[in-house]
Amino acid sequence: MISENLLLAFVLTTIAGLSTGIGSAIAYFIKKPKMKYLCFSLGLSAGIMLYISFVELLPEAFQNIGEIWGLYAFFVGMIVIGIIDLIIPDFENPHHYKQIDTDKSKVDKKLMRVGLFTALAVAIHNFPEGLATFSSTLVTVELGILITFAIAIHNIPEGISVSMPIYYATGDKKKAFFYSFLSGFSEPLGAVIGFIVLMPFLSEWLLSFLLAFVAGIMVYISVDELLPSAHEYGHGHCAILGLISGMFIMAMSLLIL
User: Fold this and answer.
1) Which of 84, 85, 98, 203 is the most exposed place for a label (fewest CB within 10 A)?
2) Are 194 and 131 in contact (CB under 8 A)?
3) Please, what is the angle between helix 238-256 and helix 35-51, to 10°?
4) Contacts of residue 208, Cβ cutoff 8 Å, sequence gap at least 6
């Protein structure tokens, strides 16, 4: 089963990572992202991730490796992504979507630097997400597809957050798209490196451990990054509406699958 899903795991991971390019393309047609839609998409992504983590990933891990190991992997996942998050300065964090000032007098090298550092930050954050998509697909294709969908949704606004400052700094849409698109490559890269490192030890037990580990990563991203950003830039109950919608979509998807 593991070997059969290998190619599909790489394909889904690539799709999830390169969805940042969709955000880059969207940035071509808008001068300023509408915070209402951005807020809803962040809430939607958080709802999807939280539902998958608590309804699918953790129960699956508990069943295969027991609650003690499952909980251990879950909190280790939180610690790992938390350390990564602490390394990245807040103003360059890819999940903090500030509106870009279009005053030409302020569009200079500093703005370009922010865009490039945001691209680097997105790449760092996307690395463990690539491993998450890859390892989940190896367990079950259905689970991999759901996680690909969740990660792709929140990678779209990340693409916007990278391309917008670079575009305003340079006036070059191609360059803005390139850096944003490039930042998404860290997800398939994470899958490749994870596969190379873990291949000698790959087993059903290890994959189940990774499921709980991934759940910790996704819960942390949802609670620490996506929901706070959605509330900060939201309109009324936009964030909670996105959250509920994400959970509902996942609930229906799991029933169908």
Assistant:
1) 203
2) yes
3) 40
4) 60, 61, 63, 64, 65, 70, 139
- Ordered DSSP codes for 119-154: HHHHHHHHHHHHHHHHHHHHH-HHHHHHHHHHHHHH
Q: How far apart are CA 35 and CA 106, in angstroms?
A: 22
Residue 233 has pLDDT above 90, yes or no: no
- CA 234/CA 228 separation, integer angstroms: 10
Distances (CA, A) of 226 to 28, 158, 219: 23, 11, 10
Q: CA 243, CA 40: separation in Å to the nearest integer?
A: 8
Residue linked to tokens 């865009």: 115
pLDDT reported for residue 67: 94
Q: Are 74 and 65 in contact (CB under 8 A)?
A: no
- CB 79 within 8 Å of CB 107: no
If you ran DSSP here, which 8-state letter would residue 107 be given?
-
Among 53, 52, 124, CA closest to 85:
124
13-52 per-position pLDDT tens digit: 888 888 887 877 766 676 555 667 667 777 877 887 888 8
Q: Which two tokens stand for residue 230?
A: 């959605």
Q: At what angle do helices 58-65 and 204-220 cross, to 10 degrees?
A: 150
Among 99, 36, 33, smallest CA distance to 234 is for 36
The SS3 of residue 164 is helix
- Residue 88, Ramachandran bin (φ over 0: left; ψ between -120 and 50: alpha; else beta): beta
Angle 6-18/141-170 helices, nearest 10 degrees? 30
Give me the residue spans of the domains in the chain.
6-256
